[in-house]
Design goal:
The chain is α+β, with helices and mostly antiparallel strands. It has ten helices and eleven strands. The protein folds into two domains: 171 residues, Ribosomal Protein S5, domain 2 (2-Layer Sandwich); 125 residues, Alpha-Beta Plaits, CATH 3.30.70. 33% of the residues lie in helices and 28% in strands. β5 and β6 form a beta hairpin. The protein is globular.
Amino acid sequence: MREKQVRIKVPCSTSNIGPGFDSIGIALNLYLIIECYPNEEWVFIQKDKDFQHLPKGKDNMLYEMAIKVAHRFGFTALPPYKVEVLSEIPIARGLGSSGAITVAAIELVNQILGLELTLDEKVKIAADMEGHPDNVAPSFLGGCVVAYYRENELYYVNKKKMDSIEFVAMIPNFELRTKVARDVLPKELPFVKSIEGSAIGNVCTAAIFQENYALLGEVLEKELFHQPYRKQFIPHFDELTTFMKKEGAYGTFLSGAGPTMISIMEKGLAANKMKQWKERFTEAEFQILQVEETGVQIKTIETIGPKK
């Protein structure tokens, strides 16, 4: 029986982008890479020493997501694979680690079961599984994605290139689970405040597509939907936002549900300042990230029998 070796490379994502709550995301150049070989049983090998604690069998999140995808198409089981996992994406830091796993699982099932899903079908499945499209759509499509998903209706606009800017991620040394960050949000907002928040989001979106990053930075810091409630979990949120503005950032926002904060800067501006920033804010890891334009990448090789 001919089977497939599959290599899947999924970029991380930063989502919300200030007022683009659950709707705007950008793919960045940190990756989840899985290399999958036909095997006698399901086994997961974590190649990164930081993730050695993760489950090695069917209780691995990647398998749990994959079997859920298979169930959607009437399959009760998946042919067993040995999966070697290398991830550059920190867990529970607001950089789309769970979304990347969802994307990888959908692509893996699509390949080994020969589903031949379209890109829109894959994004819809991912958005349904995650509950929103802003972290998974960029990982599939690359670039910036503004998306709306509800009851199997998906609408999105994709901007691939954002060549003149870079993203400075300030990744703290603690996790913030999405559920905790969700639970602190209000169940509803007053009508007038909702209109104001929506207007801020509209200008934010227009600024992205016009590449007016000074305007983008100004309006995203006026966000009303989630950052005012979640910043209580982020030490130095206001201090970092003010400091990075003085250092030349267009603006700073909470990535996803946090706790990572990201500053948008003119490309090349951050490199000479990284040492100084790290010395001042020792509790965070600073990384300069770029937009990943390609999105998920898949390579398959037909083979016979399991890899020993």
